Structures are given as C-alpha cells and as structure tokens.
Amino acid sequence: MEKPNTYAGVKLCVFDNVTTDPKEAGQIARNLGLDDALSYRLLRALASLGLLKEGPGSRFSITKQGELVGKDHPQALRGITLLEEGLGHYQIWKHLPVMIKDGQQNAFVHEYDCGAFEYAERNPEYAQIFNQAMSSYSRIYTQWVLEAFDKYDFSNIQHLCDIGGGHGHMLSHLLAKYSHMKGSVLELGSVIQNKELLWADKMNVADRCQHIIEDMFREVPSAGAYIMKLILHDWNDEEYVTMLTNIYNGSADSGRVFIVEHLVPDPDTSHFSKLFDIHMMCWGSGRESTVEEYSALLQQTGWNYVQTFYTKNGLIGIAEGAKSKP
Description:
Rossmann fold, Arc Repressor Mutant, subunit A, 7-stranded mixed beta sheet, single chain, 2 domains, 3-stranded antiparallel beta sheet
C-alpha cells in the first residue's frame, strides 16, 4: 500500500506544502483545498512511511525522505512517482497474466491501442509527466555513469554523441569532467524544444555541446563514440539491430559505443534488472538483457565487444563495443 499513498501525496502537492516547521493537519488541508478528516488520515499514513513526521496536536513536518518527492528538490523523485504510480501505468499491469499466457508483450498497446511513445504524442499530460520522470532518472543515473567511468581513459575520444539523451543532463556532466571532448545530443524535436530545460548552458558547456533533431532509427550523426543510457531496453531485437547498425555506419574508424543498462546477472543473483524486466514487458516491446546477450548483439551488428564495467552498487553496467578490434 506504500505506492498509492505516496502517489496521492505527490498528486495532492502535500510534499510541496509541508515543511520542516510543523504545521497543523487542518491548516495543511485548508491550504490544499482538501477534506480535513480524510487528509489527516493520508498525512498519518505518509508519516508511517517515513515521508512525514507527526508530532503532538496533529502537526506534521517533512522528513529528508519526503523532500525527495517534492518538486523543488534537486534530486526530485516526483516525476518518477507520478509516472510509475499513476493511472496510466497501473492500468497496463492488469494485462500481465494474459500477455504471459499468449506470448504477446506490450500491455500499453493492449490498454491504449498504441505504444507508449505514440500515447505520449496524443496525451500532453502523460508526455509532461514522462519527461519529468526521465529528468528525475537522469539525475540518478548520471552519477552512476560518472562513477562507472571513473577509471576509463577518454583521452582518445574527441566527440561523444548521446543517443536519445533527453535534455543533455548526462552528456553535459561528462563534458564538464572531460574538458577536451565535444558532444552532441540526438533527440526528437518535441523533447528538446524547450531550451530552458537543456543542461548545456547550466553546466557551462554549451560551446562544446549541440542538440541534433533526428530519429535514431533513420540516421545518427558522425562521432568518435556513442552512448545510450536505458535506450536499448525499450525495444525488441530487430529494433536493437537497426539502432546499432546505424551507429556503426555513422561512427569513425576507431569508433566506440557504450551501452548503459540494468544488466541481468547470473541466475543465483537477486537483482533489480529481473524485476524491471517485467515492467518493460508491460510498458513496451523491450527487455533487460545479460552481458552475453549484448555482446552477441554487438557482434551481430559489426562491433567487437570490449568489456563491461559497473557501478559500486552493481545496479547498472556499461558494455563497451569497438569498431576495430581492441
């Protein structure tokens, strides 16, 4: 029951109204236009989850954990909560038993008669929440990618292209760390049309970073190396091949490709990737894969598998492919 409670608190802006200074439950309800009695019960439940703290006189304050789902927190999880716990995603999970029985994944199509990306084009509210969630994810994964790359030698890479790189959060941080590189973000126009959301200016790397509007299934710009963070797992094997072949054709002779994903470990290891794989089964046509599967995919599309390196927590791995034999 934790997730519905948290979603309701985010949706009703509870975490944007409650501060570290205790506030009486009735005052919170009035500020937010909520029913006094029912809102108190929600606040009490959120306190039991550690997101709020209840004190004497039904007075509530926010905790460090609760601040993470507020809209102004620099590492905000608000977008992720609205997306993953919202009605749009909850509805698709009811199709899981039938999909597994029939062997036809992608519950989004079962529920909405179109895929998630097409649904976002039709539904501006979903698109906005989806983009907020991707920004939230980016803040988390950027730190992990920087950690995994800590010992990697980028001295021979002059141009790094981030395929499906959103607002450029990860690439901008990489360019800030490796000052000799320039970079490009390949994205759809609808994602990068709001220039205020782009990170290159915020990170002072705009002179070395460009945003390119293109479809990765059609063509990618020329670059020395490419990185894809949580991109391949969205698609099926045929689509994998198209993307990696396009990148191979666009890359320099000494080109590199970095695949950032939740890599599935051996059968004896419990891992988030094995659970998130079921989400991908419901959400789209993709899946989480093992290092061996990505290595085979790289070989199939002309790349030579080089190595895989991981974050300290092991939640993500980065598989490296090279155009020429290492």
